[in-house]
Amino acid sequence: MAQFTLYNKHSAPPSSDSTRVDCEHVPLCSINDVQLRFLVPDDLTEVRQLCQEWFPIDYPLSWYEDITSSTRFFALAAVYNLAIIGLIVAEIKPYRNVNKEVIANMSDSDELYTRLSGFPMQDKGILPDSMGRSADVGYILSLGVHRSHRRNGIGSLLLDALMNHLTTAERHSVKAIFLHTLTTNQPAIFFYEKRRFTLHSFLPYYYNIRGKGKDGFTYVNYINGGHPPWTLLDHIKHYASKVRHTSSLCAWVAGRVQQVVRWFYHKLLTRFNFIE
C-alpha cells in the first residue's frame, strides 16, 4: 500500500513556495509527495471549482457547504504543493433509513441534493433484511482526481483511506460500501470493479444532467462480514450442503453403531462360552 501523510490544513507541512500552485501545472513525481487531510470551510471555493471541472452534475451550494463543514461526512482531500488534486466524500448511514427520503415539490438543486443524500428504491436489496436491521452502510457521494494527476494511484489512495476508516473495530456495524455511477463512465466502472466492487442494480434515468435523464449503476463492496441477500440458488446450495453433511454424518453414526453392536455381540458370546 502506498504511504501517505494525514494532516490538518491549518497545520500543513512547510513548503518552499508559499504560493498556492495551480493544479494545471503541478507535475506529480511520487505518490509519497501527496498528503491527505479533511476538508475545511476554507476549501469551499476550490472544491466547488474542481467539482465543476470534474463532474457533469451541478451540485448545489448547500452540498459544498456541508461537505466542507459537517462532521457527518468523511470528506478527504489529496493535496500536493498545497493544491487539492483529488477528493473523496462519503457518508455513513443506518441501512434501515434506505428509501425513506421523499422527493416532492423540490427545486432541481434540492432534488439532486436529496438524491445524493438518499438511495433509490433499487438499493434496498443491498443487505439481507435480518442483517439490515442493525447494520450501517457507507455511501460514496463523490470521488474525483484532477486530470493532470490521474493514473498515479491518487484515487486508490483516497479509497484506501475510506476503506481503512470503515474496517476498524469501531465501524464493524458498516457492512457495505456502495456508490452510484453513470453507465457511460467506463473509467470509473473499471476502477471500482478492479477494487472488488460488484454491480448491484441498474438505475434507469437516475441522473438528470442538463435536463436529460441518464442511466446509472449501483456498485457495492461488502466489508466486515456483510453479504448480499441470498438468491434462490444460494438457498438451494445451502440446503444441498446440509443434506450432504447430514448424509455423511448419518453414515458415520451408522458405522459407529454397527461397530458397537459387533463388539457387544462378541462379548456376549464370549461370556457364555459360545466361542473360545
Automatic annotation (TrEMBL):
This is N-alpha-acetyltransferase 60. Pfam families: Acetyltransf_1. Residues 34-239 form the N-acetyltransferase domain. GO terms for molecular function: histone acetyltransferase activity; protein N-terminal-methionine acetyltransferase activity. Its EC number is 2.3.1.259, 2.3.1.48. It catalyses: L-lysyl-[protein] + acetyl-CoA = N(6)-acetyl-L-lysyl-[protein] + CoA + H(+); N-terminal L-methionyl-[transmembrane protein] + acetyl-CoA = N-terminal N(alpha)-acetyl-L-methionyl-[transmembrane protein] + CoA + H(+). It comes from the Eukaryota. The chain crosses the membrane at residues 73-90. PANTHER family: N-ALPHA-ACETYLTRANSFERASE 60. InterPro entries: Acyl_CoA_acyltransferase, GNAT_dom, NAA60-like. One of its GO terms (cellular component) is Golgi membrane. GO terms for biological process: chromosome segregation.
